[in-house]
Fold this sequence. Notes:
The complex is a heterodimer.
Chain A: H1 5-25, H2 29-53, H3 59-89
Chain B: H1 2-23, H2 27-47, H3 51-76, H4 88-111, H5 127-131, H6 135-142, H7 164-185, H8 193-199
Helix pairs in contact in B: 1-2, 2-3
Amino acid sequence: MEVTLNHYLLIGAVMFVSGVVCMATKRNGIAVLMGVELVLNGANVNFVAFARYTNLGLDGQIVSLFVIVLAAAEAAVALAIALNFYNNHQTIDIDQGDRLHG
Amino acid sequence: MTEQTLFFIFAILAGGGALGVVILQDIVRMAFSLIISLGSTAGLFFLLGADFVAATQLLVYVGGTLVLLIFGVMLTASGPFRRIKMSSGETLLGAAVGLLFFSVIAFTVIGVNWQAVPSHREVATTPSDQSGNTSRAIGMRLVGIPADTEIGLRSDSGSRTGYLLPFEIVSVHLLVVLVGAAYLARAKRRESTDATQGDA
């Protein structure tokens, strides 16, 4: 059984869906950030797989490098916000962050 | 044969780690599962012949971003916040929506005939893709010189700008974001900690 493009796309789909469900259902703020990382990685798998199995060249790999850099930036800012939230509210449960709720 | 065995090992680890992040309740175990998933993704990138992307994934993601996340876990996972329970109804609803979403994507992936895509090829033909030595080619593409397949086809290669402008934008973005994150996360000495505790 040969490894084809479909296999990589399905792995990317598993990671993407896991990340989306993790973002939507977890109540821990750090867990939501982990879901974002999973979503970005699932997209990256697709980019690199298309760069390998089509002759679109290396553009997919370059875009995946940009995605990795942006994910690092996003994680840094989001963690700073999460730590500030924890300092201000003494909890990391995002359901408690409803002070703007009217 | 070796490639298939390695692919299935890495694929099972990556998918299983991703599922573990969703299923596990303990935040520390979720972080460990995420490490397994992202590390195996780097293995998949090596199998795809993208050695530079895989090394970057290992260095930046597993070595940097995840360490940052684990610091976040350590600083916040105290007492009752280590595992925050969901109600079983929410769990069922999340599983159902996730399965539906996955089946939509899976049927789309399987249904599309990728062979019919005009640019499809089964096996990489360029030597840079075969050997996985892509760092030089990626650098050439960043400055706009097509180093791979289309080098003979394209005579106006000087007019292509490549990815230099996005690269600069991303670099400045990363710098600004890191300065901003350091500013946000620095320990502030507030004199009114009791007041914030009072209304929290």
